[in-house]
Write a structure and sequence with these properties.
The chain has 81 residues and is mainly α. The protein is built from two helices and no strands. Keywords: Membrane, Transmembrane, Transmembrane helix.
Length: 81
């Protein structure tokens, strides 16, 4: 009888491991989505800043803003697999 109870605990531990793995994968997916949202917002803000600064005497800053925004948006739309 004691062996059967221990065997049941092992099956329960396997189920707990699968649930833990599922939780970790779900957390990674949520973190990836949140990071994508932040990068998208950063890209939009930098593009808006570049539009407003287009009349500034420093055109290199505008080009740097656009380059950073493009890099952020490329990172957003890359495949993660």
């Amino acid at each position: 009888m004691a062996n059967r109870a221990q065997g049941g605990a092992v099956v329960g531990d396997r189920e707990a491991l699968f649930l833990d793995a599922a939780r970790v994968l779900m957390l990674l997916g949520a973190m990836q989505a949140f990071l994508g949202l932040l990068l998208w917002l950063l890209g939009v803000c930098l593009l808006a800043l570049g539009e407003r600064c287009s009349c500034s005497p420093i055109p290199r800053a505008v080009l740097a803003n656009a380059a950073i925004a493009i890099a952020a948006l490329k990172h957003l739309f890359t495949l993660w697999n």
